[in-house]
Amino acid sequence: MQQLDWKNLPFGYIKTDYNVRCVYKDGKWGNIEVSDSEYISVHMAATGLHYGQEAFEGMKAYRGKDGKIRLFRWDENAKRLIRSAEGVLMAQVPMELFHEAVLKVIKLNEKFVPPFGTGASLYIRPLLFGSGAEVGVRPAKEYTLIIFVTPVGPYFKEGFNPVKIAIIRDSDRAAPLGTGTFKVGGNYAASLRGVMKSHGAGFSSPMYLDTKEKKYIDEIGAANFFAIKGNSYITPKSDSILASITNMSITKLAEDLGMNVERRPVAVDELESFDEAGACGTAAIISPIGEITDLETGKVYRFCKDGKPGPKSTKLYETLVGIQYGEIEDKHNWVTIVE
Ligand SMILES: *Cc1c(COP(=O)(O)O)cnc(C)c1O
């Protein structure tokens, strides 16, 4: 293996040695197979290619100071993949199979788990899709699970610094009774126009509003939104957002810190009144938000007035990352040591 520059890893794909695969056929899952190929051979009529029968997950493993590899909340990712499979009528991956496959692919690629202190981690990408051939619109009879890993650097090279967000009103990511609550590729395809529009206008991500009234906050790109107001942690409740495991974890940490948690519809107008705002997800953990610009009205909401992330966002970020790297006590049993 060519020596990787751990400190300057991009948040992108780097080839590792192995991936694992498993096929669901004739009503049951087969054995976990190890592959050293980056390619798959798929039937051209596979439903995953035509009709979006596909879902994925994203999680990370971290190397601690003690050299041990820590996997964060894999059980929540396993449960969410089951819900996504239910959402687009795919065969579900049992928790035990998911667990075994994830541990196997990490161990096979152990040397790709970045050293402690580099800010890098091993990103794990499980992928489930309809691999059976159909031409009529119906669920496939065959499904393929693939899990690959890739070492990644921090999502933002600049580190834990405020980002700029654009409110998008001319495209939607997900409909209320659609697939927004599932982690399916189709939602990402639907978000690309908003993502590219925000990038083109010089922002790091789009903020999506509720699709019915365009009055409430849904999500920030592929991350959940949260705000801090006084001693409250506020995060949107909506029928079209994906339940982030990072958000679930930060919510718990906020409670631990004695904060009030409000999970409710959050109106755009309320942005004026928030002390801090942030986006959260596995990739960046927390991205503190410096500014939110409404591209239609030109209105700008400002946070982090001194250019620095707020104290509560910083505390939540440091606590969560500390738990993930094994530096802070894992009171809630979120971490699995990979042995
Ligand atoms: C994956 C994802 C998130 C973040 O979820 P985590 O479990 O925290 O990584 C948020 N929103 C969307 C739309 C997502 O797909």
Description:
Helix 5 packs across helix 6 (311-324). It contains six helices and 18 strands. The strands form two sheets. Strands 1, 2, 3, 4, 5, 6, 7, 8 and 18 form a nine-stranded antiparallel sheet that branches. Strands 9-10-11-12-15-16 form a six-stranded mixed beta barrel. By secondary structure, it is α+β, with helices and mostly antiparallel strands. The longest helix is centred in the middle third of the chain and has 16 residues, at 185-200. It folds into two domains: 6-152, D-amino Acid Aminotransferase, Chain A, domain 1, CATH 3.30.470; 163-324, D-amino Acid Aminotransferase, subunit A, domain 2 (D-amino Acid Aminotransferase, Chain A, domain 2), CATH 3.20.10. The radius of gyration is 20 Å and the shape is globular. Pyridoxal-5'-phosphate is lined by residues 58, 183, 219, 222-224, 242, 244-247, 281-282.
